[in-house]
Amino acid sequence: MNGSRMTDCLDTGAFRRHAHEVADWIADYFEAVEGFPVRSQAQPGELLAALPSSPPEQSEPMERILADFRRLVPPGMTHWQHPSFFAFFPANSSPPSVLAEMLAAGMAAQCMLWETSPAANELEARMMEWLQELLGLPRGWKGVIQDSASGATLCAALAARERARGKTVVDRLAFYTSAEANSSVPKGARIAGFPLDCIRSVATDERQAMRPGALAKAIEADRAAGLTPACVVATLGTTGTGAMDPLAEIGAICRRENVYLHVDAAWAGSALMLPEHQRLLNGIEHADSFVFNPHKWMFTNFDCSAHFLKDPESLQRSLSVNPVYLRNTRAEQITEYRDFGISLGRRFRALKLWFVIRAFGAEGLREKIRSHIEWAGELAREIEAAQDFERVTGPNLALITWRYAPRDAAPETLDALNERLLKAINDDGRLYLTPGAVGGHRVIRFSVGQTRTEARHVRQAWRIIQEIASSLRD
Question: What was the pLDDT predicted at 357?
Fold first, then answer.
Protein backbone atom coordinates (compact mmCIF):
# COMPACT_ATOMS: atom_id res chain seq x y z
CA MET A 1 0.00 0.00 0.00
CA ASN A 2 1.47 3.38 -0.90
CA GLY A 3 1.64 6.25 1.56
CA SER A 4 -1.18 8.33 0.10
CA ARG A 5 -3.66 5.46 0.22
CA MET A 6 -2.63 4.65 3.79
CA THR A 7 -3.28 8.28 4.68
CA ASP A 8 -6.82 7.98 3.30
CA CYS A 9 -7.62 5.44 6.04
CA LEU A 10 -6.67 7.99 8.70
CA ASP A 11 -8.10 11.11 7.10
CA THR A 12 -10.46 12.87 9.54
CA GLY A 13 -12.31 14.63 6.75
CA ALA A 14 -13.24 11.31 5.16
CA PHE A 15 -14.08 9.95 8.59
CA ARG A 16 -16.42 12.87 9.24
CA ARG A 17 -18.25 12.27 5.97
CA HIS A 18 -18.60 8.54 6.46
CA ALA A 19 -19.50 8.92 10.14
CA HIS A 20 -22.48 11.02 9.12
CA GLU A 21 -23.41 8.32 6.61
CA VAL A 22 -23.15 5.63 9.31
CA ALA A 23 -25.20 7.69 11.76
CA ASP A 24 -27.88 8.12 9.10
CA TRP A 25 -27.87 4.39 8.44
CA ILE A 26 -28.31 3.65 12.17
CA ALA A 27 -31.21 6.11 12.42
CA ASP A 28 -32.78 4.58 9.32
CA TYR A 29 -32.31 1.13 10.83
CA PHE A 30 -34.15 2.18 14.00
CA GLU A 31 -37.06 3.30 11.81
CA ALA A 32 -36.99 0.39 9.35
CA VAL A 33 -36.05 -2.61 11.51
CA GLU A 34 -39.69 -3.65 11.82
CA GLY A 35 -39.65 -4.43 8.10
CA PHE A 36 -36.98 -7.13 8.43
CA PRO A 37 -37.74 -10.77 9.27
CA VAL A 38 -37.02 -10.98 13.00
CA ARG A 39 -34.91 -14.12 12.83
CA SER A 40 -32.44 -14.16 9.96
CA GLN A 41 -33.61 -16.27 7.06
CA ALA A 42 -30.03 -16.83 5.88
CA GLN A 43 -28.83 -20.34 5.15
CA PRO A 44 -25.58 -21.79 6.57
CA GLY A 45 -22.59 -20.75 4.49
CA GLU A 46 -24.46 -18.03 2.60
CA LEU A 47 -22.29 -15.14 3.76
CA LEU A 48 -19.10 -17.19 3.54
CA ALA A 49 -19.82 -17.83 -0.13
CA ALA A 50 -20.16 -14.09 -0.75
CA LEU A 51 -16.83 -13.17 0.87
CA PRO A 52 -13.42 -13.41 -0.80
CA SER A 53 -11.35 -16.27 0.55
CA SER A 54 -8.27 -14.04 1.01
CA PRO A 55 -7.81 -10.50 2.35
CA PRO A 56 -7.25 -7.61 -0.11
CA GLU A 57 -3.69 -6.54 -0.84
CA GLN A 58 -4.67 -2.95 -1.65
CA SER A 59 -6.87 -0.58 0.31
CA GLU A 60 -10.50 -0.32 -0.74
CA PRO A 61 -12.64 2.81 -0.67
CA MET A 62 -14.97 3.15 2.31
CA GLU A 63 -17.87 3.70 -0.10
CA ARG A 64 -17.44 0.13 -1.35
CA ILE A 65 -16.99 -1.27 2.17
CA LEU A 66 -20.19 0.39 3.39
CA ALA A 67 -22.09 -0.73 0.30
CA ASP A 68 -21.04 -4.32 0.96
CA PHE A 69 -22.08 -3.96 4.58
CA ARG A 70 -25.56 -2.83 3.55
CA ARG A 71 -25.84 -5.62 0.98
CA LEU A 72 -24.46 -8.53 3.00
CA VAL A 73 -24.75 -7.98 6.73
CA PRO A 74 -28.33 -6.95 7.66
CA PRO A 75 -29.92 -9.89 5.80
CA GLY A 76 -27.61 -12.23 7.70
CA MET A 77 -28.53 -10.85 11.13
CA THR A 78 -31.23 -11.81 13.57
CA HIS A 79 -32.65 -8.44 14.54
CA TRP A 80 -32.58 -8.22 18.32
CA GLN A 81 -33.89 -4.62 18.15
CA HIS A 82 -37.02 -5.68 16.24
CA PRO A 83 -40.18 -4.86 18.25
CA SER A 84 -41.46 -8.40 17.58
CA PHE A 85 -38.40 -10.04 19.11
CA PHE A 86 -39.97 -12.15 21.89
CA ALA A 87 -37.25 -14.81 22.09
CA PHE A 88 -34.65 -15.55 24.78
CA PHE A 89 -34.40 -12.40 26.90
CA PRO A 90 -33.80 -9.07 25.15
CA ALA A 91 -30.33 -7.67 24.45
CA ASN A 92 -31.52 -4.12 24.31
CA SER A 93 -30.37 -0.85 22.88
CA SER A 94 -31.61 2.74 22.69
CA PRO A 95 -30.47 5.92 20.94
CA PRO A 96 -28.80 7.37 24.09
CA SER A 97 -26.89 4.14 24.60
CA VAL A 98 -25.75 4.00 20.98
CA LEU A 99 -24.53 7.60 21.15
CA ALA A 100 -22.50 6.76 24.25
CA GLU A 101 -21.04 3.69 22.54
CA MET A 102 -20.00 5.85 19.59
CA LEU A 103 -18.23 8.29 21.90
CA ALA A 104 -16.55 5.49 23.85
CA ALA A 105 -15.38 3.89 20.58
CA GLY A 106 -14.04 7.22 19.40
CA MET A 107 -11.93 7.70 22.53
CA ALA A 108 -10.92 4.03 22.41
CA ALA A 109 -9.72 4.04 26.01
CA GLN A 110 -8.43 1.01 27.86
CA CYS A 111 -9.86 1.57 31.34
CA MET A 112 -7.88 -0.96 33.37
CA LEU A 113 -6.65 1.57 35.97
CA TRP A 114 -7.81 4.84 37.46
CA GLU A 115 -4.68 6.43 36.00
CA THR A 116 -5.40 5.19 32.46
CA SER A 117 -8.96 6.62 32.52
CA PRO A 118 -9.85 8.57 35.67
CA ALA A 119 -13.24 9.71 34.33
CA ALA A 120 -14.21 6.15 33.37
CA ASN A 121 -13.27 4.86 36.82
CA GLU A 122 -15.18 7.51 38.75
CA LEU A 123 -18.19 7.47 36.45
CA GLU A 124 -18.41 3.71 36.99
CA ALA A 125 -18.33 4.20 40.75
CA ARG A 126 -21.17 6.70 40.62
CA MET A 127 -23.27 4.70 38.15
CA MET A 128 -23.09 1.66 40.42
CA GLU A 129 -24.31 3.83 43.28
CA TRP A 130 -27.21 5.04 41.11
CA LEU A 131 -28.15 1.45 40.19
CA GLN A 132 -27.89 0.41 43.82
CA GLU A 133 -30.41 3.10 44.73
CA LEU A 134 -32.71 2.39 41.78
CA LEU A 135 -32.94 -1.32 42.67
CA GLY A 136 -33.09 -0.91 46.44
CA LEU A 137 -29.96 -2.96 47.10
CA PRO A 138 -28.28 -2.79 50.52
CA ARG A 139 -26.15 0.28 51.14
CA GLY A 140 -22.46 -0.31 51.61
CA TRP A 141 -22.08 -2.95 48.92
CA LYS A 142 -19.41 -2.35 46.29
CA GLY A 143 -20.44 -2.37 42.63
CA VAL A 144 -18.49 -3.10 39.46
CA ILE A 145 -19.45 -3.39 35.78
CA GLN A 146 -18.72 -6.83 34.29
CA ASP A 147 -19.13 -7.95 30.70
CA SER A 148 -22.01 -10.33 31.48
CA ALA A 149 -23.77 -12.21 34.25
CA SER A 150 -21.68 -15.21 33.18
CA GLY A 151 -18.55 -13.30 34.16
CA ALA A 152 -20.09 -12.14 37.43
CA THR A 153 -21.14 -15.70 38.32
CA LEU A 154 -17.63 -16.95 37.61
CA CYS A 155 -16.30 -14.22 39.90
CA ALA A 156 -18.77 -15.27 42.60
CA ALA A 157 -17.58 -18.87 42.31
CA LEU A 158 -13.97 -17.69 42.61
CA ALA A 159 -14.78 -15.55 45.65
CA ALA A 160 -16.61 -18.46 47.29
CA ARG A 161 -13.71 -20.78 46.55
CA GLU A 162 -11.26 -18.29 48.02
CA ARG A 163 -13.32 -17.88 51.17
CA ALA A 164 -13.62 -21.63 51.68
CA ARG A 165 -10.09 -22.55 50.61
CA GLY A 166 -8.64 -22.13 54.09
CA LYS A 167 -10.87 -24.93 55.32
CA THR A 168 -10.17 -27.59 52.70
CA VAL A 169 -8.57 -28.32 49.34
CA VAL A 170 -10.50 -27.22 46.25
CA ASP A 171 -11.46 -30.73 45.15
CA ARG A 172 -13.47 -31.13 48.34
CA LEU A 173 -15.64 -28.05 47.77
CA ALA A 174 -19.30 -28.34 46.76
CA PHE A 175 -21.37 -25.93 44.64
CA TYR A 176 -25.20 -25.70 44.50
CA THR A 177 -27.71 -24.17 42.14
CA SER A 178 -31.22 -24.77 40.88
CA ALA A 179 -32.01 -27.32 38.21
CA GLU A 180 -33.55 -24.33 36.37
CA ALA A 181 -30.46 -22.09 36.63
CA ASN A 182 -28.92 -20.66 33.49
CA SER A 183 -26.25 -22.81 31.85
CA SER A 184 -23.66 -20.15 32.71
CA VAL A 185 -23.94 -21.04 36.41
CA PRO A 186 -22.61 -24.62 36.36
CA LYS A 187 -20.20 -23.55 33.62
CA GLY A 188 -18.80 -20.84 35.90
CA ALA A 189 -18.43 -23.38 38.71
CA ARG A 190 -16.48 -25.68 36.39
CA ILE A 191 -14.17 -22.89 35.23
CA ALA A 192 -13.57 -21.92 38.87
CA GLY A 193 -12.33 -25.43 39.57
CA PHE A 194 -15.26 -27.06 41.33
CA PRO A 195 -15.17 -30.78 40.44
CA LEU A 196 -17.99 -31.96 38.18
CA ASP A 197 -19.12 -34.49 40.75
CA CYS A 198 -19.40 -31.73 43.38
CA ILE A 199 -21.71 -29.40 41.39
CA ARG A 200 -25.24 -30.03 42.66
CA SER A 201 -28.46 -29.44 40.73
CA VAL A 202 -31.06 -28.80 43.43
CA ALA A 203 -34.64 -29.90 42.81
CA THR A 204 -37.36 -27.35 42.09
CA ASP A 205 -41.00 -27.09 43.09
CA GLU A 206 -44.17 -26.77 41.02
CA ARG A 207 -43.28 -23.12 40.32
CA GLN A 208 -39.82 -24.17 39.01
CA ALA A 209 -38.16 -22.46 42.01
CA MET A 210 -35.40 -24.03 44.10
CA ARG A 211 -36.67 -26.09 47.06
CA PRO A 212 -34.96 -24.79 50.23
CA GLY A 213 -35.54 -28.15 51.91
CA ALA A 214 -33.77 -29.97 49.07
CA LEU A 215 -30.86 -27.52 49.33
CA ALA A 216 -30.56 -28.10 53.09
CA LYS A 217 -30.55 -31.88 52.58
CA ALA A 218 -27.90 -31.67 49.86
CA ILE A 219 -25.64 -29.58 52.10
CA GLU A 220 -26.16 -31.98 55.00
CA ALA A 221 -25.34 -35.01 52.84
CA ASP A 222 -22.18 -33.38 51.49
CA ARG A 223 -20.94 -32.50 54.96
CA ALA A 224 -21.54 -36.09 56.03
CA ALA A 225 -19.46 -37.23 53.02
CA GLY A 226 -16.56 -35.01 54.03
CA LEU A 227 -17.16 -32.20 51.52
CA THR A 228 -17.25 -28.48 52.32
CA PRO A 229 -20.31 -26.65 50.93
CA ALA A 230 -18.85 -23.47 49.46
CA CYS A 231 -21.30 -21.68 47.14
CA VAL A 232 -25.02 -21.42 46.38
CA VAL A 233 -26.36 -19.52 43.35
CA ALA A 234 -30.03 -18.53 43.61
CA THR A 235 -31.88 -17.17 40.58
CA LEU A 236 -34.40 -14.36 40.35
CA GLY A 237 -36.01 -14.93 36.95
CA THR A 238 -34.89 -18.26 35.51
CA THR A 239 -34.29 -18.46 31.78
CA GLY A 240 -36.87 -21.17 31.17
CA THR A 241 -39.89 -19.77 32.97
CA GLY A 242 -38.88 -16.68 34.94
CA ALA A 243 -39.14 -18.55 38.26
CA MET A 244 -38.00 -16.81 41.44
CA ASP A 245 -35.97 -18.77 43.96
CA PRO A 246 -37.03 -17.92 47.58
CA LEU A 247 -34.11 -15.77 48.74
CA ALA A 248 -35.16 -15.46 52.37
CA GLU A 249 -35.26 -19.22 52.98
CA ILE A 250 -32.20 -20.00 50.89
CA GLY A 251 -30.31 -17.13 52.50
CA ALA A 252 -31.11 -18.32 56.00
CA ILE A 253 -29.69 -21.76 55.12
CA CYS A 254 -26.53 -20.20 53.67
CA ARG A 255 -25.92 -18.07 56.73
CA ARG A 256 -26.50 -20.98 59.09
CA GLU A 257 -24.12 -23.17 57.07
CA ASN A 258 -21.63 -20.36 56.34
CA VAL A 259 -21.95 -20.82 52.57
CA TYR A 260 -21.40 -18.04 50.04
CA LEU A 261 -24.68 -16.92 48.37
CA HIS A 262 -24.72 -15.32 44.93
CA VAL A 263 -27.98 -14.02 43.40
CA ASP A 264 -28.36 -14.18 39.62
CA ALA A 265 -31.02 -11.63 38.63
CA ALA A 266 -29.60 -11.08 35.15
CA TRP A 267 -33.00 -10.42 33.55
CA ALA A 268 -35.42 -9.82 36.40
CA GLY A 269 -33.19 -7.39 38.28
CA SER A 270 -34.42 -4.45 36.21
CA ALA A 271 -37.96 -5.01 37.56
CA LEU A 272 -36.70 -4.27 41.07
CA MET A 273 -36.95 -0.60 40.10
CA LEU A 274 -40.72 -1.02 40.45
CA PRO A 275 -41.94 -0.66 44.06
CA GLU A 276 -44.51 -3.40 43.50
CA HIS A 277 -41.72 -5.92 42.80
CA GLN A 278 -39.32 -4.96 45.60
CA ARG A 279 -40.61 -7.94 47.59
CA LEU A 280 -38.44 -10.15 45.37
CA LEU A 281 -35.46 -8.84 47.32
CA ASN A 282 -36.71 -10.25 50.63
CA GLY A 283 -33.69 -12.01 52.07
CA ILE A 284 -31.08 -10.09 50.06
CA GLU A 285 -29.36 -9.19 53.34
CA HIS A 286 -28.15 -12.81 53.47
CA ALA A 287 -26.50 -12.63 50.04
CA ASP A 288 -22.80 -12.07 49.40
CA SER A 289 -23.17 -10.88 45.81
CA PHE A 290 -25.82 -9.96 43.25
CA VAL A 291 -25.83 -9.42 39.49
CA PHE A 292 -28.25 -8.00 36.92
CA ASN A 293 -27.78 -7.01 33.29
CA PRO A 294 -28.76 -3.49 32.21
CA HIS A 295 -28.12 -4.81 28.69
CA LYS A 296 -31.12 -7.11 29.03
CA TRP A 297 -34.05 -4.99 30.20
CA MET A 298 -32.68 -1.52 30.84
CA PHE A 299 -32.27 -0.37 27.22
CA THR A 300 -28.47 -0.35 27.35
CA ASN A 301 -26.29 -1.89 24.65
CA PHE A 302 -24.62 -5.21 25.27
CA ASP A 303 -22.34 -5.67 27.12
CA CYS A 304 -23.07 -4.21 30.54
CA SER A 305 -23.58 -6.29 33.68
CA ALA A 306 -23.89 -4.77 37.16
CA HIS A 307 -22.21 -6.90 39.84
CA PHE A 308 -22.52 -5.99 43.52
CA LEU A 309 -20.54 -7.49 46.39
CA LYS A 310 -21.14 -7.23 50.12
CA ASP A 311 -17.43 -7.72 50.84
CA PRO A 312 -15.17 -7.73 47.77
CA GLU A 313 -12.07 -8.84 49.68
CA SER A 314 -12.41 -12.55 48.81
CA LEU A 315 -12.73 -11.76 45.11
CA GLN A 316 -9.85 -9.29 45.15
CA ARG A 317 -7.68 -11.78 47.01
CA SER A 318 -8.45 -14.37 44.34
CA LEU A 319 -7.80 -12.08 41.36
CA SER A 320 -5.24 -9.47 42.43
CA VAL A 321 -1.89 -9.58 40.65
CA ASN A 322 0.20 -6.49 41.31
CA PRO A 323 3.28 -6.04 39.13
CA VAL A 324 5.09 -2.75 39.41
CA TYR A 325 3.62 -1.35 36.18
CA LEU A 326 0.07 -1.62 37.59
CA ARG A 327 0.77 -0.01 40.94
CA ASN A 328 -0.49 3.47 41.76
CA THR A 329 0.28 6.01 44.44
CA ARG A 330 -3.37 6.73 45.26
CA ALA A 331 -4.52 3.22 46.26
CA GLU A 332 -6.13 4.44 49.44
CA GLN A 333 -8.27 7.00 47.58
CA ILE A 334 -9.71 4.97 44.69
CA THR A 335 -11.08 1.57 43.71
CA GLU A 336 -9.08 -0.26 41.07
CA TYR A 337 -11.66 -2.31 39.18
CA ARG A 338 -8.99 -4.47 37.54
CA ASP A 339 -9.09 -6.59 40.71
CA PHE A 340 -12.85 -7.27 40.37
CA GLY A 341 -12.93 -9.21 37.11
CA ILE A 342 -11.20 -11.74 34.91
CA SER A 343 -9.81 -9.36 32.28
CA LEU A 344 -7.17 -6.77 32.98
CA GLY A 345 -8.43 -4.69 30.06
CA ARG A 346 -11.73 -2.91 30.64
CA ARG A 347 -14.11 -1.09 28.30
CA PHE A 348 -15.72 2.28 29.13
CA ARG A 349 -19.14 0.75 29.85
CA ALA A 350 -20.26 3.29 32.44
CA LEU A 351 -20.72 5.98 29.80
CA LYS A 352 -23.75 4.30 28.23
CA LEU A 353 -25.34 3.78 31.65
CA TRP A 354 -24.90 7.48 32.38
CA PHE A 355 -26.54 8.44 29.08
CA VAL A 356 -29.41 5.95 29.42
CA ILE A 357 -30.32 6.75 33.03
CA ARG A 358 -30.24 10.49 32.39
CA ALA A 359 -32.10 10.32 29.06
CA PHE A 360 -34.93 8.06 30.33
CA GLY A 361 -34.94 9.14 33.96
CA ALA A 362 -35.95 6.69 36.67
CA GLU A 363 -39.60 7.39 35.91
CA GLY A 364 -39.17 6.60 32.20
CA LEU A 365 -37.34 3.36 32.93
CA ARG A 366 -40.08 2.25 35.31
CA GLU A 367 -42.80 3.16 32.82
CA LYS A 368 -41.34 1.00 30.03
CA ILE A 369 -40.66 -2.01 32.26
CA ARG A 370 -44.11 -1.78 33.84
CA SER A 371 -45.71 -1.63 30.37
CA HIS A 372 -43.89 -4.80 29.28
CA ILE A 373 -45.17 -6.62 32.35
CA GLU A 374 -48.73 -5.42 31.71
CA TRP A 375 -48.67 -6.54 28.06
CA ALA A 376 -47.38 -9.99 29.03
CA GLY A 377 -50.24 -10.24 31.51
CA GLU A 378 -52.73 -9.28 28.81
CA LEU A 379 -51.35 -11.97 26.50
CA ALA A 380 -51.49 -14.56 29.28
CA ARG A 381 -55.21 -13.83 29.73
CA GLU A 382 -55.80 -14.19 25.99
CA ILE A 383 -54.06 -17.56 25.95
CA GLU A 384 -55.98 -18.69 29.03
CA ALA A 385 -59.26 -17.89 27.32
CA ALA A 386 -58.37 -19.50 23.98
CA GLN A 387 -59.92 -22.89 23.30
CA ASP A 388 -56.92 -24.65 21.76
CA PHE A 389 -54.10 -23.07 23.77
CA GLU A 390 -52.78 -23.67 27.25
CA ARG A 391 -50.91 -21.25 29.48
CA VAL A 392 -48.26 -23.32 31.26
CA THR A 393 -46.38 -20.87 33.51
CA GLY A 394 -46.52 -17.20 34.37
CA PRO A 395 -46.75 -14.47 33.71
CA ASN A 396 -43.56 -14.17 35.74
CA LEU A 397 -42.95 -10.48 35.23
CA ALA A 398 -42.91 -10.22 31.39
CA LEU A 399 -42.33 -13.92 30.61
CA ILE A 400 -44.94 -16.59 29.99
CA THR A 401 -44.79 -20.12 28.64
CA TRP A 402 -47.62 -21.76 26.74
CA ARG A 403 -48.38 -24.50 24.27
CA TYR A 404 -50.76 -25.29 21.48
CA ALA A 405 -53.12 -28.01 22.75
CA PRO A 406 -56.08 -28.64 20.42
CA ARG A 407 -58.78 -30.54 22.24
CA ASP A 408 -58.90 -33.27 19.60
CA ALA A 409 -55.11 -33.85 19.64
CA ALA A 410 -53.74 -36.88 21.44
CA PRO A 411 -51.60 -35.81 24.44
CA GLU A 412 -48.61 -37.78 23.21
CA THR A 413 -48.54 -35.73 19.98
CA LEU A 414 -48.43 -32.29 21.60
CA ASP A 415 -44.63 -32.02 21.97
CA ALA A 416 -44.10 -32.69 18.27
CA LEU A 417 -46.97 -30.39 17.34
CA ASN A 418 -45.48 -27.52 19.33
CA GLU A 419 -42.06 -28.09 17.79
CA ARG A 420 -43.67 -27.83 14.36
CA LEU A 421 -45.55 -24.70 15.40
CA LEU A 422 -42.44 -22.98 16.73
CA LYS A 423 -40.50 -23.77 13.55
CA ALA A 424 -43.35 -22.44 11.41
CA ILE A 425 -43.55 -19.23 13.45
CA ASN A 426 -39.83 -18.53 13.21
CA ASP A 427 -39.65 -19.47 9.53
CA ASP A 428 -42.51 -17.06 8.86
CA GLY A 429 -40.29 -14.19 10.02
CA ARG A 430 -42.89 -11.87 11.54
CA LEU A 431 -41.89 -12.70 15.11
CA TYR A 432 -39.28 -14.75 16.92
CA LEU A 433 -39.89 -17.12 19.86
CA THR A 434 -37.77 -19.76 21.61
CA PRO A 435 -38.56 -23.16 23.11
CA GLY A 436 -38.66 -24.33 26.70
CA ALA A 437 -39.52 -27.38 28.74
CA VAL A 438 -41.77 -27.66 31.78
CA GLY A 439 -42.46 -30.95 33.49
CA GLY A 440 -40.69 -32.81 30.72
CA HIS A 441 -42.93 -31.37 28.00
CA ARG A 442 -42.16 -28.84 25.29
CA VAL A 443 -43.47 -25.33 25.74
CA ILE A 444 -42.99 -22.07 23.85
CA ARG A 445 -41.61 -19.03 25.64
CA PHE A 446 -42.86 -15.48 25.07
CA SER A 447 -40.71 -12.74 26.59
CA VAL A 448 -41.75 -9.09 26.29
CA GLY A 449 -39.00 -6.51 26.77
CA GLN A 450 -37.61 -5.08 23.54
CA THR A 451 -37.08 -1.31 23.68
CA ARG A 452 -39.43 -0.48 20.79
CA THR A 453 -42.11 -3.05 21.53
CA GLU A 454 -45.60 -1.59 21.92
CA ALA A 455 -48.89 -3.18 22.95
CA ARG A 456 -49.83 -3.51 19.26
CA HIS A 457 -46.83 -5.75 18.61
CA VAL A 458 -47.82 -8.15 21.37
CA ARG A 459 -51.43 -8.24 20.13
CA GLN A 460 -50.29 -8.75 16.55
CA ALA A 461 -48.01 -11.58 17.69
CA TRP A 462 -50.98 -13.36 19.27
CA ARG A 463 -52.93 -13.07 16.00
CA ILE A 464 -49.98 -14.47 14.05
CA ILE A 465 -49.60 -17.37 16.47
CA GLN A 466 -53.27 -18.29 16.12
CA GLU A 467 -53.12 -17.94 12.34
CA ILE A 468 -50.08 -20.20 11.97
CA ALA A 469 -51.36 -22.72 14.50
CA SER A 470 -54.62 -22.97 12.60
CA SER A 471 -52.76 -23.57 9.34
CA LEU A 472 -51.01 -26.59 10.86
CA ARG A 473 -54.37 -28.25 11.49
CA ASP A 474 -55.90 -27.55 8.08
Answer: 97
